[in-house]
Amino acid sequence: MHLIDSWSPAGQGTIIIHTLGHDYRAELQPGCIGLDFSIGLRFVPSGRFNDQFDRSGHIELSDGTRCYLQSFEEIPRVKR
């Protein structure tokens, strides 16, 4: 995946990750409590592919909670 530019919420347990020229939908596994109230996210790569964030990585909320991905897919570019 390309360098992450920004992200936006897309419903309960789902975020859209924006990169230069690409958008990805990340659905989080159940139990990711606090996503709606987190003041920031950290995208932690799996370390398998040159530190690129992919389905094997996880998201860390500002309070330290780790949220693991249920699905991760590229989607058609949405206009922002």
3D architecture notes:
There is one protein chain. A hairpin with a 4-residue loop joins strand 1 (4-9) and strand 2 (14-19). The chain is an all-beta fold and 80 residues long. It is built from no helices and 6 strands. The two termini are 19 Å apart. The radius of gyration is 12 Å and the shape is globular. Strands 1-2-3-6-5-4 form a 6-stranded antiparallel β-sheet, with no helix packed on it. Helices cover 0% and strands 46% of the residues.
What is the number of strand segments? 6
Instruction: Calculate the mean pLDDT score and round it.
Output: 84
- Helix content percent band: under 10%
What is the terminal-to-terminal distance? 19 Å
- For the largest beta sheet, what order do the strands appear in spatially? 1-2-3-6-5-4
Return Rg in Å.
12 Å
Topology pattern, helix = H, strand = E = EEEEEE
What characterizes the major β-sheet?
A: 6 strands, antiparallel
The total count of helices amounts to: 0
